[in-house]
Structures are given as structure tokens and as C-alpha cells.
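Can't paste images in this forum, so I'm doing it all in text. The chain is below; anyone willing to post the predicted C-alpha cells underneath?
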Amino acid sequence: MRSWSIPMGRLMGVEIRLHFFFALLLGLSLLYTGMSGLAAVRGIALWLLLLATVSAREVARAIASTYHGLQVRSLMLLPIGGLPSYATPESAEQSSEGSAQMSIALVGPITNFVVALLLLAFIFGVSPTVSVLPKPWISADHLLRSAFWLNIFLAVINLLPAYPLDAGKLLRGSFSRSRGALQGTRTASSVGQIIALVLFVAGVFLQSPWLLLAGFFIFVGAQLEDQGLVFQSVVDTVRMRDIMLTDFALLSSSDTLEDAVFKSIHSLQDDFPVVRSGLLVGVVSRQRIVETLQMDGNGYIQSIMNRAFQVAQQEDSLGVTFRRITGGRGLSLVPVLDGERIVGIVTLQNLMHSMGLLAESRRLQQQSSS
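Text version of the structure:
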């Protein structure tokens, strides 16, 4: 998902990313309205209106998530809404059940309807003679009327039982309770893709670009959620003992930097656990060793090692360790312990490699069993 998105910054600790196809819409909007002069300005303004419409509903959903105690780590924005990624498995599970699921599903369409009513009141208050009914309802030539209909359109679309839309998530919850999380999501995703195809065909026959776009992005969203669930099922079931590197080099806190450079020559590692009397006391990177040696001359590893590090146990899940290694600033190695004895290491490089292989293995298993 990250490779198909553009980072937009952070809001209240949540990473906001814009899906590549959302950004592509800006180019399509300019091609439709014209690439120069006032037409281009209006095309950009129409795209910004859609972004603002999506953002308004997602801010309301984020508030609802916070109210229910859910920890949202990142949010992917699509023209049909947002796809959240939760910081903990508990938050992800809670978001798919009970009052939290219902609140988060309803608050998006309600927000869009409320914004639409406020815009309608503003239009009537400023220009009572202006009607919002003439077609085309969404056009770069009538931005205020377009803002009203964009909110109506987004609210109505999200009431369709097409996963990953709001009503589709309620459908997914119902399927999950009867069939299990993985099968329930895959069934809801299939229903969503069928509805997406219906909207796409309707858009062709009715010559409606908005129905075409809605069908396309529902299909994309369903695919992203399906892939995300398969990925999550992998990372939460695989243990550290299954993927940790057991052939690794250690450094002693009493080693000099020159000794450490010599040892690192015979290792492919970029990061090293540091031990003292057999106990883990820190971690240090090859780059840090070389840079310090070049700038300050020789010294001891204990003076430059990082004492703030995360560790994992052999029975910890891959998902827990992945969140540790990606959540820590500058953290690229997690030692794996058996009690207090280090028995393996997990680096960011081998972690990403293992996750890719495991996800592919799980996908092949599902194909062979279906």
C-alpha cells in the first residue's frame, strides 16, 4: 500500500498518505477542464474540493476512533474515503466489532450529509435564486454546487454494501462473525468487487464519469484491503523463531573501533548486538563505527553503542516485532532472546525479505486450497 501512495505528513500522530490514483485524478481533471488559464485553476479547485470532502469525513471517523480508544497508525486517502491502518491488533479487532464498528461506519456518511446541508443553507442564504438541481451536478464551472453534490455522492456511495465502503465494513463484520475474519473479509471483498463492476458498467451506459470512478476506486480499495488482511494474517501468526537469523556476529563493549571494523569485514551484517559478560547491553551500526573512527579516531564500542533498543522473545509474533522495528526512530535491529541469552537477530532488511516470502507462500497456499 505504501508503494502506491504519497506521504502527506502527520495529523495528531497519524501518518496521512494519498493513494497514487487520487493524485492521478488531478491530471485527469486538468485534461478535462483545460491545462491553462482559469480553466486549469477551476480544475485544480474541483480536485481540492474532492480532497476536502474526503478529508472531512475521515477527520470525523478519526475522532470516532479516538473516542473508542482505537490507535490509528496511518490513513490512506482514496477518492471514495480512507483506509486506516491500526497500530495494534487489538485496535484492528475492536474496529471491526460492536459499537465501535457501527459508530465509525455511520459517522462518515453522516458527516458528508451534514456538510452538504450546511453548504445548501449557505447557497440559499447568499444566492436564493441559485438552484443546485441543474445538471451537470459536479462541474468545475460551478464549484459551490459541486461541493454540495460531492458530499451527497460520497455519503450515498458509502451506504452501498460494498467493502471497503462504510456499509461494506458492516457487511464484512457480519460475515466475519459467521465465517471467521479472513474468509469473512474475502467474501465481503468479492461482494464489493461485484458492486464495483455494476457501477462501472452503469457509468459506461449512463456516460457518467463519476460512476466510472466510483466503481474503479471501490475495486481498488477492495483489493488493497484484501491484500492487507492476507499480510496481517501472516505477520500475526509467524513467530520470531521461524525467521530470526541464527548465524550472526557479536561485538563486545570492550572492543575498540578498529577491532570492530576488522570483525565487521567478515560479516554481512550492518548492525551488531553488543554484549558484556554474555549479556546484551546495546546495539551499534557499521556506519556509526566507521564514521566515529574517521572523525574522532579509535575508541571503544561502549562509548558509541545505542543503549536504547528493543528486544524480542522467540515466541513473539512477527507483527509485534515489525511494529517495534518500524516504530523506533533509527531502529534497524532487534535481538531475539531466550531468557537473557541472545539466540538470534532480526534486521529490517531480513524482516522485509521474510515478510514478502511469507506473504507469497500464504497466497500460494490459498490458491491451492481454493
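The first helix runs from residue 20 to 33. The chain has two domains: 2-235, 240-357.
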